[in-house]
Amino acid sequence: MQRVFSGIQPSGVPTLGNYLGAIRNWVPMQDQHESLFCIVDMHAITVFQEPAQLLAQTREMAATLLACGLSPEKCILFVQSHVPAHAELAWIFNCVARMGWLNRMTQFKDKAGKDREAASAGLYVYPNLMAADILAYKATSVPVGDDQKQHLELANDIAQKFNHDYQADFFPRIEPHILGVAARVMSLRDGTKKMSKSDASDQSRINLNDDADTIRNKIKRAKTDTEPLPDNMLGFEGRPEARNLVGILAAITGETQEGVLRAHGGKGFGPFKEVLADALIAHLEPIRTEMLRLLEDAPALDAALRRGAEQADAIAGPIVTEVKRIVGFLPRK
Ligand code: AMP
Ligand code: TRP
């Protein structure tokens, strides 16, 4: 049986992009595989996070994931920093990965921006920690958006070099499970930029805790062009905002993009946006309500996360102990 692992940073309120690109696709996996879903707070602090806010966002993320349908009965939901295996294995991987490999990572280049000297060392070794997240469980199936593909290739390089250097056939190959490019949700302000929970403009995204009025307003104000909607996919050429809004309606209703265009092609954006807002509100309102309900009982949430960490630790602990024997921190049995 495959073991599934994925992670999400508690660096803000999860967005519609996180939902359509990741979270929604995790839900059916918990029925089919042993699955671990991790709120990666250690990754989040690669960029400074205000402590009280980090704690609040970690809980909020847990509540959102549960509200979206993850169930502690079916999967292991936990917080990265609660399980020491992640940090321990990450250090060993810092010593396996090569500077040259890390230098090629596009996410570092994007996130560090122009002033690379000022980026944290943590941001630079971020992919090594991500490799440790997965390999501490010997997970083989990792569902992520396509922006994470390069990191998974690096994780496989690390696993292979470890196996080779220590002459141990220890870590398995990871199969990236790249969730459809159709599920790449773009910013409402700029159809060429990914929708992100860390974007400076709140108008650029739908947050999973936005209420109905907020969603309607954001969709109303979403950037578009002045042409009516095209009636076929070729008409998206040079119109990233139109493509994005149609893609969102298709994803949320389970309709194909062609189907959406058959129904709405030739219409202006005004009426289309009404339909889109209605569909989003109908889909997201129950999630928001459940999330707010769960957040009212913080001790229950914390207890669920503690249980998740214990279950995770029971799997990762023995694997990392074995790694310690392999590298010579502990005697071989
Ligand atoms: P992050 O927000 O960077 O912690 O990403 C968590 C998960 O959500 C990853 O699997 C990402 O690939 C996915 N994701 C983030 N933003 C988007 C987006 N705009 N569209 C689709 N998937 C996304
Ligand atoms: N880097 C991932 C992202 O930003 C989050 C992540 C951390 C992750 N560790 C992981 C995803 C392990 C999959 C597996 O989206």
Topology:
Layout: E1 3-8, H1 16-26, H2 29-32, E2 34-39, H3 41-44, H4 51-67, E3 76-79, H5 85-94, H6 99-103, H7 106-112, H8 121-135, E4 141-144, H9 149-165, E5 175-178, H10 212-221, H11 240-253, H12 257-264, H13 269-295, H14 298-327
Parallel strand pairs: 1-2, 2-3, 4-5
Helix pairs in contact: 4-13, 5-8, 5-14, 8-9, 10-13, 11-12, 11-13
What does this 3D model show about the protein?
- The protein has helices at about 15-25, 30, 40-45, 50-65, 85-95, 100-105, 105-110, 120-135, 150-165, 210-220, 240-255, 255-265, 270-295, 300-325, and strands at about 5-10, 35-40, 75-80, 140-145, 175-180.
- The mean pLDDT is about 95.
- It has 14 helices and five strands.
- The two termini are about 25 Å apart.
- The strands form two sheets. Strands 1-2-3 form a three-stranded parallel beta sheet.
- The chain is mostly helical and about 325 residues long.
- The protein folds into two domains: about 5-180 and about 295-325, HUPs (Rossmann fold); about 200-295, Tyrosyl-Transfer RNA Synthetase.
- It is about 55% helix and about 5% strand.
- Helix 9 links the parallel strand 4 and strand 5 (about 175-180).
- Helix 5 (about 85-95) crosses helix 8 and helix 11 crosses helix 12 (about 255-265).
- The chain is globular.
- It binds adenosine monophosphate (AMP) and tryptophan.
- Adenosine monophosphate binds next to helix 1.
